[in-house]
Design a protein that fits this description.
Layout (H helix, E strand, L loop, with lengths): L4 H22 L5 H22 L5 H9 L8 H13 L7 H5 L4 H4 L1 H15 L7 H35 L5 H7 L6 H25 L1 H11 L2 H24 L2 H9 L5 H16 L11 H8 L3 H12 L3 H17 L9 H7 L5 H12 L3 H11 L1
Helix pairs in contact: 1-2, 1-12, 2-4, 2-12, 4-8, 7-8, 8-10, 10-12, 13-16, 14-16, 15-16, 17-19
GO molecular function, one term: DNA-binding transcription factor activity
InterPro entries: Homeodomain-like_sf, HTH_AraC, HTH_AraC-typ_CS, Tscrpt_reg_AraC-type_HTH
Pfam families: HTH_18
């Protein structure tokens, strides 16, 4: 079985990608979320490279390439963006808003859905086997034009990532004073390399998506102009990311912020930002609100948010948020337009995630049960 030198380079890139992804995933050094985000990016790139360069030596390999979703390009862009966020803010976590950005992976699976539909129809006797080439043509056309949203997605997220890297780190006041801001020079260089890769991809994409030039272009160059640079990027990004993780104290960074003296002006600014996040931006309406989400919103590490609330506001994070939710419930109870709503329905609209949590928080804050409060208000009116 002969393998061309270019295919061998891509396959070696895939192999080193799987090795580096595994090392990053199991590493206990540095920020675990950062390591696993980068491991996922490298693993997906390695899987794509394997799908492109693996020699087809029997029908089972061909079947796997046709019907298994080995190429998942859409999640790469947001994952790189989240990786950047996690490097800049050790308190960053993946919430629902972040997970939603990964859903476009379904675009990568479109041609496979078509193939699975054909197999299901064939198995049920609804589709003749002679229609196979026509279904295969539809799958190929789908894969071809899906590269357009893939390229656009990468370009948009690269812009967001570049903008994020130009901003100061969330806890810049304290971290600069400590001299512990992360060294991201290698990653900034890598983003510039990916921007150059985007240009190469666009040059390859234009003749590829035009039917009259597609066959001649692929016969001449294949996928080598895209996947050989990817093999190089896998090695560079994986190795640099692994070395960065080993040398980074990121896991303990946000904890050290809480035990360090915070200037009075920083505390005042933090309290103002947290108050505005509740009163103006109404973050408390999010039933899944966490200290990490608030920290990202006000650009402070979660440990700093908790420290300021506990030491200066004299409230826990949950008590601080629930106070705003309870005030919102009280306002809703006095609104005649809400007479058709149940107390639980109003509580859920105001950010509580369950009746039990609402009942407990209300009594802790007011000294009364919600029912007692309503009866008191009715008697007063």
């Amino acid at each position: 079985m002969a393998i061309s030198p270019f295919d061998l380079i891509i396959l070696l890139g895939a192999l080193q990608g799987f090795i580096l992804a595994t090392l990053l995933w199991v590493s206990r050094k540095g920020n675990r979320l950062s390591n696993r985000l980068l491991a996922t990016v490298i693993g997906l790139l390695a899987l794509m490279s394997l799908a492109i360069a693996i020699p087809i030596y029997n029908r089972w390999v061909s079947f796997a390439l046709d019907f298994l979703p080995l190429i998942n390009a859409m999640p790469l862009r947001p994952l790189l963006y989240f990786y950047t966020k996690s490097l800049l803010d050790p308190g960053f976590r993946l919430g629902r808003a972040e997970r939603i950005q990964l859903y476009p992976v379904i675009l990568d699976w479109g041609s496979k859905f078509i193939g699975w539909t054909f197999l299901g129809g064939l198995f049920l006797g609804l589709v003749p086997q002679s229609d196979g080439p026509a279904w295969g043509h539809v799958m190929n056309e789908y894969d071809t034009y899906t590269d357009i949203p893939r390229w656009l997605s990468m370009t948009i997220y690269l812009g967001l990532t570049s903008q994020l890297l130009r901003q100061p780190a969330p806890a810049d006041t304290v971290l600069k004073a400590q001299g512990k801001q992360p060294n991201l020079r290698w990653f900034r260089q890598f983003i510039r390399v990916i921007l150059f890769f985007q240009v190469l991809w666009l040059i390859h994409l234009v003749p590829y998506i035009i039917p009259d030039t597609r066959s001649a272009w692929l016969d001449q160059f294949g996928w080598y102009p895209i996947y050989i640079p990817i093999a190089i990027m896998i090695y560079w990004m994986g190795l640099q990311g692994y070395l960065h993780a080993r040398n980074s104290p990121a896991e303990g960074l946000s904890e050290k912020v809480t035990t360090t003296f915070i200037p009075a002006e920083t505390v005042d600014k933090a309290i103002q930002s947290l108050t505005a996040a509740m009163q103006t931006d109404k973050l408390y309406l999010d039933p899944e609100l966490t200290v990490e989400k608030v920290g990202r919103h006000v650009q402070l590490p979660p440990k700093t948010v908790s420290f300021v609330l506990n030491q200066y506001v004299k409230k826990s994070f949950n008590a601080f948020v629930n106070d705003y939710r309870i005030e919102a419930v009280k306002q809703q109870l006095t609104n005649p337009a809400n007479e058709h709503l149940t107390l639980t329905g109003i509580a859920l609209e105001c950010g509580f995630n369950s009746q039990a949590t609402f009942q407990r928080a209300f009594k802790q804050a007011t000294g009364q049960s919600p029912k007692q409060y309503i009866e008191q208000q009715a008697a007063a009116s």
